[in-house]
Each structure stands twice: as structure tokens, then as C-alpha cells.
TrEMBL record:
Protein name as it appears in the record: Diphosphomevalonate decarboxylase
Entry's Gene Ontology BP terms: isopentenyl diphosphate biosynthetic process, mevalonate pathway; sterol biosynthetic process
Function according to Swiss-Prot or TrEMBL: Catalyzes the ATP dependent decarboxylation of (R)-5-diphosphomevalonate to form isopentenyl diphosphate (IPP). Functions in the mevalonate (MVA) pathway leading to isopentenyl diphosphate (IPP), a key precursor for the biosynthesis of isoprenoids and sterol synthesis.
Domain annotation Mvd1 C-terminal: ranges: 187-288
EC category name: lyase
Stretches assigned to the Diphosphomevalonate decarboxylase-like N-terminal domain: 8-173
Molecular function (Gene Ontology), one example: ATP binding
Source species: Zootermopsis nevadensis (Dampwood termite)
InterPro entries on file: GHMP_kinase_C_sf, Mev_decarb, Mev_diP_decarb, MVD-like_N, Mvd1_C, Ribosomal_Su5_D2-typ_SF, Ribsml_uS5_D2-typ_fold_subgr
Ranges in coiled-coil conformation: none
Length: 338
């Protein structure tokens, strides 16, 4: 079969990636650590098809045709094709010379801070690797689509190593523990806006690298210690330490955005109210009183929270074998267009 369909998960960073040392290869300034979220609630789904009848590479995202000429897409496809050609068995059946059609969709809002590009590129690279029979680490290829995508290639908790090689060969993701390690952990995603971010992550972090003194301090003095400490907390299932580092690293990331000139503000009043609620909840839950009554907070007006997703840590990308899952017809065209 020259068609493959896969689904891939979203990930949420507990130690944040913010800032590149190489824009083209997408090499980060610091290591980051994430939890892979269950594909049951949120996922990207991608079909890739190769055929000698296709005359050009084509891509449809969420039902609309998009250009294949983006540098990031090209880098991923070229790298997968290069790896397919140098496969150990030496037998290249010619498939890697055929053009591909790609059709991809997310079941959650794009660019609302939910790492749609991470799930999307992880899914694309994983599906292409199946199509072209490429084995070995492919996180370094997904990284070239979108940095955080390399972390979505593994389930459980994942570390993206910044690496030090100038060609990026050691800037890859590895699994810290599988999803089964900490099964009682639950994750709530509270969406306060489903609009596209005003400043994309790529240009936001570029500006932070140029202007933020705090980012320099973070990279050299905070992230290395925090990374080791959070990994230890994950391995030991030490929730208090884990939560403490996660909250502090998130705050510092947003502080770096505010220290960027001009500043980037990604949180709104509702986000800050939720942060306060969590701290109030933690204080109240330590007391032997009625929990709701002892939370010192006034109710907010309805409608500020767009929606809430209750999920857990999950597995990495999966192949969907049944033909009805394919997003492309036998002729290689999307089954659904908008
Ligand atoms: C993260 N973010 O670690 C951080 C925290 C956003 C805040 O990774 O330019 O879409 O494609 O490498 O991966 C978002 O950045 O940026 C991101 P590119 P990406 O999850």
C-alpha cells in the first residue's frame, strides 16, 4: 500500500522551549521537558500517499489546500527521502522518488497555544517514515518542521535535548518514562481563547532572543537545574515538586515574554484568575473544612472559559490500519474539502 494514515498527540511543556540558536535547523537554546497528552481527546490525523501518477507534492490542512513550498515542510520531506534512499537494506523501490499527497486535520483549535504544529509535524513525519520504511530516530526530522514536534513522537514524559552539534544531529527527543509510569495523573486544559495568537511562537521567541536579558539568565542559570529536578520528580512521582517546578517554569516563560521588547502577552485576565484559583485551591485543600467555602475567591461572570478538556498522559503516534480512516481517496484527493 502506498497510503498510510496516522494520528499523533499534542504535548504540553513543563520546562518550556523558548529561543533558538539556529533558525533553519530549529535548534533550541535550552533543553525542554513535556508530557504527551492522550490522543483520545486531542490529536492530529494525517494521511500520506505516494504515486507515480502524481505530478507534484500537494498538501491539504483542515480541508484547504496549502503551499508545499514552505521551507519547514521541504526540510522534513527532503530529510525523510534522504533517509529512505540510504536505508540499510539498500533496496530503494523508487517510492521515495514519487510525489506525495498529504492530507491532515486537527480536532482542536489551531494556534491557540495547544501545539497544533507539534502534533501536525509529528504526525506528518511519523506517517512519511512508515510510507518510506524509515527506521531509527525521526525526532530530529520532526524538529525541523516545528521544534516542539520532536517531543510528540514519544508517549509519556519526554525530554528534548538541546544538543551541541552544529548540524543538529544530537538535538533529539528521548522518552523519560512511558505513559503507564504515572497513571493516576490527570491533565486539565482550560481554553480561555480560541483565537489565533497575535504573535506566533517563532517570531515571539526570535524577538526574545534579541531583546530579553531575562532569557539569557533563564537559559544559563535556571533551566539546567530545573530540568534535572523535574525529571527526578517525574521518576519518583513526587507531585508536589513536579507541580512546583512546572508552575515556576511557566511563570518564567511568560515573564520572558513580558521582558521581550516590545512585550508579548499570551495570558489574559481569565488566565491569571485561574492561576489564583489553583493557588487558593491548594491552600484550601490543606484545611479540614468545606473546600468550596474556604476558597477565597469571588465568582466570575459566565462565559470567560471557552471550554475545558479533561485528559491524561498518553502514548506516542499510532498507525490507523483500517481504510475508512484514510483522509485521501484512492485517486489521492481529500475525501472532505471546506
Ligand atoms: C513549548 N512553546 O516548549 C513552548 C512553550 C510555546 C511556549 O514550543 O518555531 O511552535 O515551530 O520551533 O515549537 C511553541 O513553539 O516553535 C513552543 P517553532 P514551536 O512547548
Amino acid at each position: 500500500m502506498n497510503i498510510v494514515t496516522c494520528i499523533a498527540p499534542v504535548n504540553i511543556a513543563v520546562i518550556k522551549y523558548w529561543g533558538k540558536r539556529d533558525e533553519n535547523l530549529i535548534l533550541p537554546l535550552n533543553d525542554s521537558v513535556s508530557a504527551t497528552l492522550s490522543i483520545k481527546q486531542m490529536n492530529a490525523k494525517t494521511s500520506v500517499m505516494a504515486s507515480p501518477n502524481f505530478t507534484e507534492d500537494k498538501i491539504w490542512l483542515n480541508g484547504r489546500e496549502e503551499t508545499f513550498h514552505s521551507q519547514r515542510l521541504q526540510n522534513c520531506l527532503q530529510e525523510i527521502r534522504r533517509r529512505a534512499k540510504q536505508r540499510a537494506d539498500g533496496k530503494d523501490d523508487g517510492v521515495s522518488d514519487w510525489c506525495v499527497h498529504v492530507c491532515s486535520e486537527n480536532n482542536f483549535p489551531t494556534a491557540a497555544g495547544l501545539a497544533s504544529s507539534a502534533a501536525g509535524y509529528a504526525c506528518l513525519v511519523f506517517a512519511l517514515a512508515q510510507l518510506y520504511n524509515v527506521s531509527g530516530d525521526i525526532s530530529g526530522i520532526a524538529r525541523q518542521g516545528s521544534g516542539s514536534a520532536c517531543r510528540s513522537l514519544y508517549g509519556g514524559f519526554v525530554r528534548w535535548h538541546r544538543g551541541s552539534a552544529s548540524d543538529g544531529s544530537d538535538s533529539i527527543a528521548t522518552q523519560i518514562v512511558p505513559h503507564s509510569h504515572w497513571p493516576e495523573l490527570r491533565i486539565l486544559v482550560l481554553v480561555v481563547s480560541d483565537k489565533r495568537k497575535k504573535v506566533s511562537s517563532s517570531s515571539g521567541m526570535q524577538n526574545s532572543v534579541k531583546t530579553s536579558e531575562l532569557l539569557k539568565h533563564r537559559v544559563s542559570h535556571c533551566v539546567p537545574q530545573r530540568t534535572e529536578a523535574v525529571i527526578k520528580a517525574i521518576i519518583n512521582k513526587d507531585f508536589e515538586t513536579f507541580a512546583d517546578i512546572t508552575m515556576k517554569d511557566s511563570n518564567q516563560f511568560h515573564a520572558v515574554c513580558l521582558d521581550t521588547f516590545p512585550p508579548n502577552v499570551y495570558m489574559n485576565d481569565t488566565s491569571h484568575a485561574i492561576v489564583n484559583l489553583i493557588h487558593e485551591y491548594n491552600i484550601a485543600s490543606g484545611k479540614n473544612k468545606d473546600l468550596i467555602a474556604s476558597i477565597r475567591m469571588e465568582p466570575h461572570e459566565p462565559g470567560l472559559l471557552k471550554y475545558l478538556i479533561h485528559t491524561e498522559v498518553g502514548v506516542g503516534p499510532q498507525v490507523l490500519d483500517e481504510p475508512h480512516h484514510h483522509l485521501l481517496t484512492d485517486a489521492g484527493l481529500p475525501k472532505v474539502l471546506v
